[in-house]
Structures are given as C-alpha cells and as structure tokens.
Design brief:
The complex is a heterotrimer. Chain B contains 11 helices and no strands. Chain B is mainly alpha-helical. Chain B has a domain of about 200 residues: MetI-like fold, CATH 1.10.3720.10. Chain B is elongated and about 75 Å long. Chain C is of the alpha/beta class. Chain C folds into 2 domains: about 240 residues, P-loop containing nucleotide triphosphate hydrolases (Rossmann fold), CATH 3.40.50; about 80 residues, no CATH class. Chain C is built from 11 helices and 12 strands. The longest helix of chain C is centred in the middle third of the chain and has 18 residues. The model of chain C has no long low-confidence stretch (mean pLDDT about 90). Classes of the chains: A alpha/beta, B mainly alpha, C alpha/beta.
Chain lengths: ~325, ~290, ~325
C-alpha cells in the first residue's frame, strides 16, 4: 500500500483571509480581522497513501487542498513536495509541479468547461506542457477512467454527460500527465449513491496500479473509512487528531472526533442510533474562542483548555491528538 | 480535428438560428435591417441620381416630393431619396466599425480588469467610470472638434466613448466565471494567464460580447447622426446626419421643407430600433444559456 | 389505522421532449405512527410522489391515474379550497428540500411562521405569536429568538425553525424531503434526535425522503426503495436492511459505506439510471441487473407480497 517515505510534507501551514470591514469600522478599529481558515497545520502524506482530511463546514479542508497546490498563496508555513519547498518555486518549477500534482473537484457540473469538447478538455494538459501524441494519450486516459469506447466521447460536451461520467472525465484529465499526487476535494459528494462506489473504486485502483498518493477531502466519514489509509480531523483550521483510519474510527481520542463518530448514522436499524453528544454548532471563525478552539462545546473542558492551545502530539503509537486531557498521560 | 470543429460551429449556428426564430422582435428587427442594408448596398442600382454636390440640378431646388423626386430635393437640387439610400452606407458602416472597435476595447478592458483584479482592475475601472460619468455627447463634441471631422476621426471618437458599457458587462461576467472550478482547473494544469483569458474566459464571454456589440451598433449610428447633424461629421460624405445638417443649415425647418428633415429622422429611428430588437433577441438567447447545465 | 393510502399513482410531466413518466404505478400505505423512509437516487420520483400527494406539482405535472386517500379523503378529487382549508398544513404538512435556505431574509423568523399559521387558521396575531414561542421551545430554539432574522440563525437553527413551521397547525402527517442533507454531521445528529423525540411526543406519522440510507435506518420504521418511478421493494426497516430481495436494493444496501461494523468492499452497480421519457421496456432495472432474464426485458414485474408487509417487484423473486 503506502511506502515509508513522504511525498508531501505540510509544515505549520497557515491561510488567513482578511475580513473586509466597512469604511467606518476600518477607521475606528485598528486591528485587522482574519478568518483563519487554516491555522498551523502539520502532517505528512506518504507515497502511495490515501490520506483523508475530514471535518465539518468551516474547518478549512477545502482551502487546505488549494493552498497545498498553491492555487491560493498561503499566509505562512511550508509545503514540501518530494523534499522541495513548493512556495519557493519559480515559474519553471511551478509548471513542473503542476505536472506532478493535480486536483479533482467536488462539482462535476462546474469543473468542466461547458464550451470544450471532452477531447479538447482532456487533451489540454498535454498542450499546455507541449507533449505531443494527443490522440493516443487521450484514448489511454479515457480508458483508464472507464469511459469506453473512448472515441465515442471525443466530440461530446459536458452537458450531454451524466454527473458520474463528468467526474470520470475530470479524473481522465487529472491522470493524463501521470501525476504523483492528487488532491480529491469531495469527489463523490455530489454524485448519486450507486455511482459513488464506482468512482471511489476507480480512484483506489489507480492508486494501486500507479502508486499515486491522494489527499482525500471529505465530510463523509463512512466513505473515508472505506477509502483512506490514514485520516486527519480538522476543526476550525486546526488538526485535532490524526491516525490510521481504523485506529481513529475504532478508538477516537479527541472529544470532537468522538462526537463526530457518534453522530454518523449507520445503515443498520438494529444497532444504536446516532447520537449528538455535544450541543451547539461551530462557532464564528472570525472570533475564535481562546485556548483550545473546541473547549466551548467540549464535555471534558478544564481550566487549562480555556487558556492554552493544545499541541498535536503523539498520544499513542502513530496516533496524534491535540487535547490537554488526552495527552496528559 | 478542424473538420469536426467546422461541423460543431455549423451545429451551434443552426441551434442559434432556431432559437432566434422564436423571438418576434428579433424577426422584425432582422427584416428592418435587411431592408436597409439591401438598399444601402445596392443604392447605385436603385437610383440614377447623383449625390455629388456639384451635380445637383440647381433649377430643382427645394422641390417637394413629386413623381420625379419621390422625397423631393435639397438646397442644391439633389434627390433626397438617393441621398437616403447612399447615406445608409456611411451611417451603417460607421455604426459597424465603431461598434466593433469599442466592443474590442471594452472586451479587452473587461477581461483584464476582471481577471487580474488588484490595482490593475482599479485603474482600468476608474478610467471606465470617469468616461461613463462625463456626459457622452458633449465629450464627443469636444473630441470631434479636437480631432477634426473626418470619417475615421468620427469612428475613433464614438469608439473611445462607447467601450465602457461592454467593459463593465464583460468584467462582471469574468468575475463570476473566475470563481467557477473549471477556470481554476486550467491553472491547476499549469496554464498561463494568457491561455486562461484567451481560450477559456473569452469563449465563455463571447456570446455576451456579441449581444452587446449589436446594441452598440445602434447607439453608434445615433452618435454619428448627432455629430454629423451638429456639423462635426465628415462634410464630404453623405450620411443621414449630414442630410439633416445641410437641411437645417439651409433653413429647411424654418421653411417647412419637411421632406428633408423627416425621412432621415425616420431612417435613423428605424435602424436603431432594428438593432435594438436584434440585440434584444440575442440577449434573450445568450442569457438563459449561460445558466444551462 | 391507515392514515395514507396511495394506490397505483401515476404522475407524468409534460415536456418538450415528451412525457416524463416520473411516477409510474406507486403504491404505499402509512399507518398512524409510521415513519416511512422513501429512498432512491436523484430522479427516481420520490419528491414527485409526495408533491402529488400534497397536490403541489409544478404546472406541467399531472396525476394521470391512481388513488390517494388521506384518512378517507380522496386527495385527487377534493377541491383546492377545501384542501387548503382543511388538509394542507393542518393535517398534512411538508418540509421542503432546502427550505432552510428559502426563509425570507427580510422578515423575522417568528413572523414568517405566524404568517403560515394565520393563512390556515383564523386566529389572532397574539395567539399565533404565543404558539410560535411554544413551537420554538418544542424544537429546541430559545423562544426569545422569534424576533430574529434568518441570517442571525445558524444552519441547525434554521432547520429547527422550518420543522416548527411544519408543526404549527398540529398535523397528523409530516413529509420531510431531505431534511438533513445540507447539515453538518453533528447538527444532523441533533436534528435526527429532535425528529425522533417529536415523533414520540406528538404521535406524528412521517414520510422521510432521502438518498442517504443510513438516515433512514436511523429514524424510520418502514422503508420503500424507489427506482425510475417505481417502488421496487418496501417493508419494515429490519427486513429491508437485513434481507433485501430486489437486486437494486441488494446492490445499494449490501455494501453501503458504514462507520461501524465490517469494512465493506466496493460493489458498484453498473450502468446509470434510465431516461424517464423512454424507459427501458419490461423491468426498468433490467439493463443494470446481474440476474436479468428474457422475461425481465419484456414484462414489467408485478409487486408481490413476499412476506407479511414485505413487497417486492421482481420477476426473479416472484417465482
């Protein structure tokens, strides 16, 4: 499955969005407010690994995917791809990076150019990188994405295809340059249930055959469990727990992870129903609670939680958590 | 691939024509414009009279409409109807050229301002706003006076004032397109700015630009008519505005020679109306399609 | 006691391309206290079915056949005025898909519910106002917040407000169309808990439409699986989830991703849902069915009661 070496290293990554205040407010208050979408996140993705990044809305997972690929410029921190600092890449190195690192989007209706034929769309990366042999490579890519016979799709347009087919087209385009790393941003959440498994199955098989590493961004822990090797849980821009998928699901350490897992309904009417162990909803990301961001909803919060931010450290072997209570031992 | 591209464009064109046929206004506009364009193009076959000032029949000045001169004659005895026919050429030509140029400028400004944002956008949009805020006609008058009155200077004047509307519309469209994942995905494969702007933003904005340009033709014709009427047009050429200009300056209104004033006015109105209808029909087709999945 | 009896409902939409046979022979029954989960993928007809029941179809939708009896009242024949005064919202209400985002942003939340109440009941503004405060307490919102605007409510709160609105006139049956799809996981659990509570407290009957089978297992006692305008299988919740008989239900359920229990392998169903203007002849599922036989291609299968309360429409299982 996955190797020991890391292919992507994320080091204290930060992405802060300045909040645009009204004219009067900007005169009156001196402080610039930020939405700290990603606020000091550190983790590694190993070669050939499917690393899941999960969390609820506002946790920063979608932003993270784009910052890692440098589609948005980070506010701070480093991203290393195969040992090299991506944020220091010049134009040439960036172009090379774009050959090796790709993205698949959530919305199959919006991620394809409505005016481009499927052939042109899938061939475009080849043209950008001046690689010839388009016809053969496009046939190859479409076949790998299980759109057969490929020739039948050449002249079609996105609006003629179903959601699942469009997502396969997106996969074909992402694959055509033989990338080593793919950010998959909720790739199946907008697809019908019966289509999801075939797309996820395809992604996993491509990883098995070609040793591609994935950052699999999702809010659906049930599919994450099927697909991921390791997973990180985000809350308000911080990584609160990170472990191999089975370890995290069977034995969640962080109170937030525990609440998440208890809340997921199970397709089995004979087992325990889903539970909401914590109350309330995610607080406003502009005015973050001091100390541990989760303390306002946490059942175990103590005084230290309100003052000091917990660090993400190893609580068990290969299982990190950011919680004072958990890592106390 | 190019044979298929051709087939694709033919298919799109057929689809467009079918949709266009459904707009009653669009058909009316199309008919009006076809008539005027036909008359202008074949003016020399439709009339034997000359429009040259030196070839007027001075014995037949200011004649009211008759069998010989269906719309009467002007101050130097030229046939008004013939002038209307030839005048269409100049008015329409200036209209098309000015619309094309201002459409081009507006598109470029809108694309760059929308795509780059930041200070580049600010500068471009402030310039746009300044031109928009200053009243159009007075500004055109000043520019025309400065540049002198010739065929091309009129086109330049009208274009320089007219690109702002298109710029704003294109920029707005680009801003919304920019947010869509398929644009970001072009960056994600390593494409540069020019490729994104030229091959992805522009084709998606194109229908909007065409609709804008058609409307611009109408307003350009009106602008040319206004400038010519005021005497700032090319006095060596006959356009509808010029007919009005000579008419007024030789006392046609005062003396109630309505056949010199009314026909050009009606032509300008009809043609502008025609372009407005056609532009409206275009707009109807373009807009819902933008949202089609 | 049978509260809702739908028999052989057929609803078609008139479009440029032809008639879309969105609901083509659907039969179901709700007994008092039931929570029926209506499951299926997009386009299978679940929303159209309930819109037909509530007579809220769009202008090009037509009920072409079948019977809908709500507590003995013929829902197809009853006239619009009577339907509005006596049944809709008063005895049968609906939580529409995405309703939480359809709250009018320029009106206070409480006022919107008051308006809904007063359209259906001629009570004073004061009484309606008091009822809204009671409803807020019932659904877990601080009653002082009736004067807030929608943008001041969080996602979960908005959904609670929508639920409150649907309960405003004390209905017998609540139809909920994807009530938790747009919510975060933990808020979803909170809302599902609320719905379970309300069902018990108020003795509500419910139809819950969703594509998420785990939500159905979580909250319903019966389930009906729809495919391409037909119900392919229905029965009590344990039978459906543990012993599905129809190949489509089996395909969906046997490897449905789950956070607990055995880790499943991927078992995708090949093909795609059919075009509803010209659906495949015979059984609509046959192009994707691993067991399809000659008869499946020719004849539409009958719905057969395999066990008490367990209905399946499949030639292979009908033998």
């Amino acid at each position: 499955m996955s190797h020991e070496e890391s292919i992507v290293e994320i080091d204290d990554l930060k992405m802060w969005f300045p909040v645009r205040t009204g004219f009067l407010q900007s005169l009156l208050s001196k402080e610039q407010l930020y939405v700290k979408a990603v606020d000091g996140v550190t983790f590694d993705i190993k070669k050939g690994e499917i690393f899941g990044l999960a969390g609820e809305s506002g946790c920063g997972k979608t932003t993270m995917g784009r910052v890692i690929l440098r589609l948005i410029e980070a506010t701070g921190g480093k991203v290393r791809f195969k040992g090299e600092d991506v944020f220091t890449f010049g134009k040439r190195e960036m172009k090379e990076f774009r050959r090796r690192a790709q993205i698949i989007y959530q919305d199959p209706y919006e991620s394809l150019d409505p005016r481009m034929s499927i052939f042109d769309f899938v061939a475009e990366p080849l043209i950008v990188h001046k690689i010839g042999n388009e016809k053969e490579l496009v046939v190859d890519a479409l076949e790998r994405a299980e759109l057969t016979p490929p020739q039948e799709f050449f002249h079609r347009f996105p609006h003629e295809l179903s959601g699942g087919q469009r997502q396969r087209v997106a996969i074909a385009r992402a694959m055509i340059l033989n990338p080593e790393f793919i950010v998959a941003d909720e790739p199946v959440s907008m697809l019908d249930v019966s289509i999801r498994s075939s797309i996820l199955d395809l992604m996993v098989r491509l990883r098995d055959e070609l040793d591609i590493s994935y950052l699999y961004i999702t809010h659906d822990l049930a599919t994450a469990r099927q697909v991921c090797d390791r997973i990180g849980i985000l809350y308000l821009g911080k990584l609160v727990e990170e472990a191999p998928i089975d370890a995290l699901v069977d034995n969640p350490l962080h109170p937030y992870t525990q609440a998440l897992i208890a809340a997921v309904p199970v397709p089995d009417p004979t087992v325990e129903k889903s539970k909401a162990i914590i109350k309330g909803e995610i607080p406003n990301p502009i005015n973050l609670p001091p100390g541990c961001r989760f303390h306002t909803r946490c059942l175990y919060a103590e005084e230290i939680c309100m003052k000091k931010e917990p660090k993400l450290i190893e609580a068990k072997k290969d299982h990190r958590a950011a919680c004072h209570i958990v890592t106390r031992k | 691939m190019s044979m298929d591209k051709l087939n694709l464009y033919m298919k799109r064109l057929k689809g467009f024509i079918n949709q266009y046929k459904e707009s009653k206004l669009g058909i009316i506009g199309f008919i009006i414009l076809s008539i005027f364009i036909f008359i202008s193009v074949f003016a020399n076959h439709l009339s034997d009279y000359s429009i040259k000032t030196t070839e007027g029949d001075l014995s037949a000045r200011f004649q009211s409409p008759s069998y010989k001169h269906l719309l009467g004659t002007d101050d130097v005895g030229r046939d008004i109807l013939t002038q209307i026919m030839y005048g269409g050429r100049i008015s329409l030509l200036i209209g098309f050229l000015a619309a094309a140029i201002s459409g081009g400028i507006g598109t470029l400004v809108g694309l760059f301002a929308g795509y780059y944002g930041g200070w580049k956008e600010d500068i471009l949009m402030r310039i746009t706003d300044i031109i928009l805020v200053i009243p159009g006609l007075p500004l055109m008058i000043v520019l025309a006076a400065l540049l002198g009155a010739s065929f091309w200077s009129i086109i330049v004047v009208i274009s320089v004032i007219g690109w702002t509307g298109t710029a704003r519309v294109v920029r707005a469209q680009v801003l919304s397109l920019k947010e869509r994942p398929f644009i970001e995905s072009v960056r994600a494969i390593g494409a540069g700015d020019l490729r994104i702007i030229g091959l992805h933003l522009l084709p998606n904005v194109f229908p909007l630009i065409v609709a804008q340009m058609v409307l611009r033709i109408g307003s350009s014709i009106l602008a040319e008519a206004s400038l010519s009427f005021l005497g700032l047009g090319d006095v060596t050429k006959v356009s509808w505005g010029m007919i009005l200009h000579w008419g007024f300056s030789t006392g046609a209104l005062f003396n109630n020679y309505w056949w010199i004033i009314v026909p050009p006015g009606i032509c300008i109105t009809l043609v502008v109306l025609g372009f407005t209808f056609v532009g409206y029909a275009f707009d109807q087709i373009v807009n819902p399609r933008m949202r089609r999945r | 006691m049978v509260l809702l009896d739908v028999e052989n409902l057929r609803t078609y939409f008139e479009t440029r391309g032809g008639f879309v046979k969105a609901v083509d022979g659907v039969s179901l029954q709700i007994e008092k206290g039931d929570a029926l989960g209506l499951a299926g993928e997009s386009g299978c007809g679940k929303t159209t079915t309930v819109l037909s029941i509530m007579r809220l179809l769009p202008f090009n939708g037509r009920v072409l056949g079948g019977k809908i009896l709500f507590d003995g009242v013929d829902m197809i024949k009853i006239d619009e005025e009577k339907l509005r005064q006596e049944i809709r919202w008063k005895r049968m209400s609906m939580i529409f898909q995405g309703a939480m985002n359809a709250l009018n942003p320029v009106f206070r939340v409480g006022d919107q519910i008051i308006q809904a109440i007063r359209v259906h009941e001629g009570i004073t503004k004061e009484s309606a106002s008091k009822r809204v405060e009671e409803l807020f307490s019932l659904v877990g919102i601080d009653p002082d917040r009736t004067r807030d605007y929608p943008h001041e409510f969080s996602g979960g709160m908005k959904q609670r407000a929508i639920i409150a609105m649907s309960l405003a006139c004390n209905p017998d049956l609540v139809i909920a169309d994807e009530p938790v799809t747009a919510l975060d996981v933990i808020v979803q659990a909170q809302i599902l808990e609320l719905m379970r509570d309300l069902r018990e407290k108020l003795g509500l009957s419910m139809i819950m439409i969703t594509h998420d089978l785990s939500v159905i297992a979580d909250i319903c006692n019966k389930a009906a699986i729809m495919y391409a305008g037909k119900i392919v299988e229905q029965g009590d919740i344990v039978t459906i989830f543990k012993h599905p008989e129809h190949p489509y239900s089996q395909g969906l359920l046997t490897n449905y991703p789950s956070i607990k229990g055995e880790k499943k392998k991927f078992a995708p169903i090949s093909g795609r849902p059919p075009n509803l203007i010209s659906p495949p002849p015979g059984c609509r599922f046959h192009p994707r069915c691993p067991y399809a036989d000659e008869i499946c291609r020719r004849e539409d299968p009958e719905t057969v009661e395999m066990k008490r309360g367990h209905y399946v429409a499949c030639h292979m299982k009908n033998r």
